[in-house]
Write a structure and sequence with these properties.
By secondary structure, the protein is mostly beta strands. It has 2 helices and 5 strands. A hairpin with a 2-residue loop joins strand 3 and strand 4. The chain starts with 5 loop residues before the first strand and ends with a helix.
């Protein structure tokens, strides 16, 4: 079983109608109910500093938490997903 269980993402916020990204990457754990649904470019809601904050996913990977000894806060839910049909049409071109 090779399910991807960790995301690397940037914190983001809306300012004057534009999406602003803070370019320091952090990691979060993907719960089993959301595995396979999150991909690069999605915006997800995560736990951060005892609050819920949106982040922009830059990578989804598999990490053996038992081997690394690192434990991350969890992804809560998916807020906005990249349109899969646009990605597929770009690959064809």
């Amino acid at each position: 079983m090779d399910e991807k269980n960790t995301i690397i993402a940037f914190h983001c916020r809306k300012q004057n109608g534009e999406l602003k990204v803070r370019p320091k990457p952090f990691k979060w754990h993907i719960p089993k109910r959301l595995r396979g649904q999150i991909q690069q470019g999605d915006i997800v809601l995560v736990e951060s500093l005892n609050r819920k904050k949106p982040v922009l996913v830059i990578d989804v990977s598999r990490e053996e938490l038992e081997e690394t000894g690192c434990y991350y806060k969890r992804v809560i839910k998916i807020l906005d997903q990249v349109d899969k049909t646009n990605k597929e049409s770009e690959k064809i071109k």
